[in-house]
Amino acid sequence: MASESPAKRKCMGGDCDNDAGTLQCPTCLKLGMKESYFCSQDCFKRNWSTHKAVHKTQSNFLSNLIPPKVISEPDPVTGNYNPFPTFPFTGPLRPVYPLSPWREVPKSIPYPDYWKDGIPASEQTFKGRTKIEILDKKQQEGMRKVCRLAREVLDIVAAAAVPGVTTDYLDEIVHKACVERKSYPSPLNYGQFPKSVCTSPNEVICHGIPDQRVLVDGDILNIDVTLYHEGFHGDLNETYYIGDKAKADPDSVRVVEAARESLNEAIKLVKPGALFRDYGDVIEKYAKAQKCSVIKAYCGHGINSLFHCKPNIPHYAKNKTVGVAKEGMCFTIEPMIALGTHRDKTWPDDWTSVTQDGKRTAQFEHTLLVTEDGVEILTARFPDSPGGPIPMPVAAVETNGANGNGVH
Amino acid sequence: MDFEDDEAPPLLVDVEGQGDAEGGADRTRVPITIVTGYLGAGKTTLLNYILNEQHGKKIAVILNAADIEKTLTVNTGGEQVQEWLEVGNGCICCSVKDQGVNAIESLMEKKGAFDYILLETTGLADPGNLAPLFWVDEGLGSSIYLDGIVTLIDAKNVLKNLDEPAQEALPSEGHEHEHDGHAGPLLTTAHLQISHADVIVINKSDLVSEEELEAVQARVQAINGLAKIHITQHGQVPQLEGFLLDLHAYDNVGTLDVGSRGHSHLDPSISTVTILVPVLAPEQLPHLDAWLRSVLWDSKLPAPSNGAEDEDKDNYSLEIHRVKAKLPLSTGDIKIVQGVRDVFDILDAPQNPSAEPTLNGKIVLIGRFLLNKPFKESFISAVGQT
């Protein structure tokens, strides 16, 4: 997009701290890797012997399907390791394995159909893929209940998301809080997702897998919670500032607040007769005004007794989505907003979706019920819910006056 | 295995000024054509012909879209290579793009772009279900775009196929709105493949007499008056461009000259209807959108406001397979409408300075239950007077 400023790229050279210009490795380009920048031919030459290994992993088509045999040496103290050492990560974040053992859900709690093999068969029926369900009063009550429980769980885990804890610890909290509420954590084994919640820090757009990475002051973290309770799913997420450093970082605040506010703007449209295609126009307009982009690969979805069903709700402008909201429909809106490119890339774990330029992204999500004359936010915040909007840090105005926000 | 094991590193390339690798908007996009037709219509022969012909293009052929995760044949200057299509796991749920589209995109990212992609469907495929998947939203910045649908028909068997339900009448998918109560005349897969086509190739013309061929042609045109018709033998086509390739059936609408005269009753099930409409004011565009939503989303022709509202609701229900329109505005701009099944878009017409000013707008609908309906009255009443 024309509005995207050229990224400050770092030279790929392992021993080099220079910024890279526009010089790229031709072999990488041919292989479709577009982020392979070097500061100079000399530096490229110096690093050639290590760099060319990258081509090997890419030129084998199956390298994304079969996990590489090489794994990095485990950290001698913690035993932790990066399972994909040769993967060209787009930003500083790395997976920190091993994942903790599978968490069980007591048999007394009703399971969704995919609990065992990971296949949500009920979603894949013709009806699940094409029909938009209208919920009766009783079903609406079921949605109301599970969404309230989901909000409780999100609030509990959000309060625990502080510098020094691992995302796996947050997963444990979510899992226990779900079980206490006689609910199955919907992500668990959905399409073989290994954990009970999605935790997506910094450049992770969505579907981050909780692992042994320790949250640090300055992170932003999206926590995406879904519960399955008495036959219904309730789905919501928020992005939180981890520590005071994050709240003082103008870019982090800009992207997080843009995501929060773009969702609020979209929700204002929801009522019977509103067109599904229009939410994306509002979201993209708001994001652009904040000099952010909208992630296009993932969209909102219908939700009821199925975790994901019709309708699809794209978050980008000018989409051709068919359909209008009607009283009794439930669906989510969950815009993902990025500081840089809207393009995404998936880690070899087949879940973690990151921005291709490694810049930060944020997301917010509510489950919505279309009412007679408007919308009920089933996953609305409580007065004491953690998180919530914060103002732009003052320093930003002073150091960043050039971006038009200045009050000189 | 490869050349890069030799020691010298290649020269870095300067990508400055080479388009915007991240932007996407100005990327070149690769056209994809969907090729349909009954078993025996000659699809495979035609595709083999294309793969073996010297055309200097890198054409990828995807066989059997129902099995898209299988293989793909890429032809580069006469050399054929089989590739595996990688279907990402990721989230089946909330990913907007069709998996097939994703698979093709990721293959191109790794292997470099093709010049063209041909997607062969199964003999029983309803192209109306496939087209919306590949008619990717412009906002998504996909590296492929739907160029059009080509349907091959077998001159010898097509009339029989149209008249008797060879398989259980029609594929159930996508036809959930079955017009409660009245089933309507027979609809076969052959109808669907013809009604959605942008190009129709009447193949095996050498196997029928001239009269038979004329009858086939007339019937096909009655169903789909918009498609370009080509008559061939043995699946051999004189040239590919504008024939199978570079159709631009989803970004341009052409002149919208309908092949047969007005609405023809030659086929009992499907027909093509042309509506001539006046020049519109820009303020009327939202009404145009609402009219299209009713016709395409709700399968309902809005009743003209001059009374007669309640006499027979059935009179206003219909089923549209394809719509194209060219609508001049009072500002001198021209809008075009493209639609397949319930998906539609209103776009700016490509600039064509040589075109003479048009006094009338034209809407062409192809579909079911279109005969004897007050289209023009409905449209005028919906958009209001200029």
Can you put this structure into words, describing what you see?
The complex is a heterodimer of chains A (408) and B (386). With 408 residues, chain A is an alpha+beta fold. Chain A folds into two domains: 9-59, no CATH class; 121-403, Creatine Amidinohydrolase, CATH 3.90.230. Helix content of chain A is 27%, strand content 17%. In chain A, strand 18 (366-370) and strand 19 (375-377) form a beta hairpin. By secondary structure, chain B is an alpha/beta fold. Helices cover 21% and strands 24% of the residues of chain B. Chain B has eight helices and 14 strands. An eight-stranded mixed sheet of chain B has the order 5-4-3-6-2-7-8-9, sandwiched between helices. In chain B, a hairpin with an 8-residue loop joins strand 3 (58-62) and strand 4. The relative contact order of chain B is 0.12. Mean pLDDT of chain B is 77; it is low at 1-6, 17-26, 65-70, 86-94 and 168-182. The interface between A and B is large, with 71 and 51 residues. Strand 3 of chain A pairs antiparallel with strand 1 (13-14) of chain B.
How would you summarize this macromolecular structure in one to three sentences?
The complex is a heterodimer of chains A (408) and B (386). Chain A has helices at residues 26-30, 41-59, 126-130, 137-160, 167-180, 243-247, 250-269, 278-289, 394-399, and strands spanning 9-10, 19-20, 23-24, 37-38, 184-185, 198-201, 204-206, 220-229, 232-241, 293-294, 300-302, 309-313, 330-333, 336-338, 344-346, 353-355, 361-363, 366-370, 375-377.
- Calculate Rg of chain B over CA atoms: 22 Å
Average of per-residue pLDDT values of chain B: 77
Which stretches of chain B of 5+ consecutive residues score pLDDT under 50? 1-6, 17-26, 65-70, 86-94, 168-182
- The class by helix and strand makeup of chain B works out as alpha/beta
The CATH class label of the largest domain in chain A is Alpha Beta
Task: Tell me the CATH architecture of the largest domain in chain A.
Answer: Alpha-Beta Complex
CATH superfamily of the largest domain in chain B: P-loop containing nucleotide triphosphate hydrolases
> In the CATH scheme, what's the topology name of the largest domain in chain B?
Rossmann fold
Q: What fold name stands as the CATH topology of the largest domain in chain A?
A: Creatine Amidinohydrolase
